[in-house]
Design goal:
- The protein has 149 residues and is mostly helical.
- The protein has one domain.
- It is 70% helix and 0% strand.
- Helix 1 packs antiparallel against helix 6, helix 2 crosses helix 4 (65-82) and helix 3 (57-63) packs antiparallel against helix 4 (65-82).
- The longest helix is centred in the last third of the chain and has 40 residues, at 109-148.
- It is elongated.
- It starts with 19 loop residues before the first helix and ends with a helix.
- The model has no long low-confidence stretch (mean pLDDT 91).
Length: 149
């Protein structure tokens, strides 16, 4: 069985994802066709792995000061993505999850207002996660380019 990505042991991760062509393909995919659940899972992974990034600063610093600075930038981008954890908007009517409002709810101005707010919050969350994921990918690309030089 497949576990959630943020629960995958770090020793089981496919490092080919760090190839520049893979990172650029992921960046393009996020720009052209961002899927909210994939963005959410990236946020959850950033949240659970953020301490790992922090603890690797010493390794980066042992390579060079420039590597340390680049690692700090990447770690900060991971932190900004991880900071979104816990701010996922809650559907105001969990019994309707994945469907439209009931006829009765559509006639209730308070229900309509709550649902409109939820939809706006989800659009904002989607845009925020897209930006944060792109920032992590771009910092990763920069880091990998430095490794090649």
């Amino acid at each position: 069985t497949r576990v959630f990505g943020h629960e995958t042991p770090i020793t089981s991760i496919d490092v080919s994802i760090l190839a520049l062509h893979s990172l650029n393909a992921h960046k393009s995919s996020v720009v052209t066709n961002a899927q909210i659940l994939k963005l959410k899972f990236a946020m959850e992974t950033a949240h659970s792995r953020y301490p790992d990034f922090q603890h690797c600063l010493t390794l980066a610093a042992s390579i060079s000061p420039d590597h340390a600075l680049d690692w700090l930038v990447l770690t900060d981008k991971v932190r900004l993505l991880a900071d979104q954890y816990g701010s996922w908007p809650l559907h105001p009517f969990p019994e309707n999850l994945g469907s439209e409002l009931s006829e009765q709810q559509c006639r209730d101005p308070a229900c309509l207002a709550a649902f409109d707010k939820y939809q706006r919050d989800m659009q904002l969350m989607s845009g925020t996660l897209k930006l944060r994921v792109l920032e992590v990918i771009e910092a990763s690309i920069f880091w990998m380019q430095r490794q090649a030089s």
